[in-house]
Amino acid sequence: MTSKRLWAPWRAPYVTSIHKKTTGCVFCKIIKSRKDKKNYIFKRTKHCFAVLNIFPYNNGHVLVIPNRHVSDLKNLRKEEKEDLFQLLEDAKDLLGIVLKPEGYNIGINIGRVAGAGFPGHFHIHIVPRWKGDVNFMPVTTNAKVISQSMVVLHEKLVNANKTRN
Fold it and tell me: Is residue 70 within 8 Å of residue 76, measured between CB atoms?
């Protein structure tokens, strides 16, 4: 039997950066940088922003993040919570327009043991889902096939947001 390879050169920056120590909060850094295209931020509101996850579980994996560095939903002010959940709804709607998923996983991981990769800065995950999108690849090869370029998806989400407003 011949060996088959799945090439994923876009993962090289992640693989090579695993050992590098990052100082400070990655979310605070990207919100302050104002480089939305580079960081895949596709919508900002008064208190929050929506960004493509650069290490997605599935195509269109989005994070909805408050601007203020807080570790738990209970630490958000009322107006921040309202803004956060409105942006959650808006981001989900934009994903629906652009990707037309059949469902969504929407989740919050609070604390490292709960799976929060960045436990100090609260955020919500939106993961679009389609029938049959889970296959043997993650189980047998520890690899996930993402079917669309983040650059293309970011552009589509930004354009969809512009046409809605």
Answer: yes
Length of the chain: 165
**Rounded to an integer, what distance in angstroms lies between the CA atom of residue 157 and that of residue 155?**
6
Q: What are the residues whose beta carbons fall under 8 Å from the beta carbon of 69, sequence distance 6 or more?
A: 25, 27, 28, 120, 121
Write out pLDDT tens, residues 119-153: 889 999 999 999 877 655 554 455 666 667 888 88
Cα of first residue to Cα of last residue in the chain, in angstroms, is 55
| C-alpha angle 62-28-15 in degrees, rounded to nearest 5 | 65
- Residues 157/94, Cβ–Cβ less than 8 Å: yes
Fold of 24-164: HIT family, subunit A (3.30.428)
| Residues belonging to the active site | 123
> Is-above-0.70 flag for pTM?
yes
Residue type at 38 in one-letter notation: K
DSSP letters of 107-130?
E---SGGGT-SSTTS--EEEEEE-
Contact 157, 42 (CB under 8 A): yes
Distances (CA, A) of 150 to 23, 78, 145: 25, 32, 13
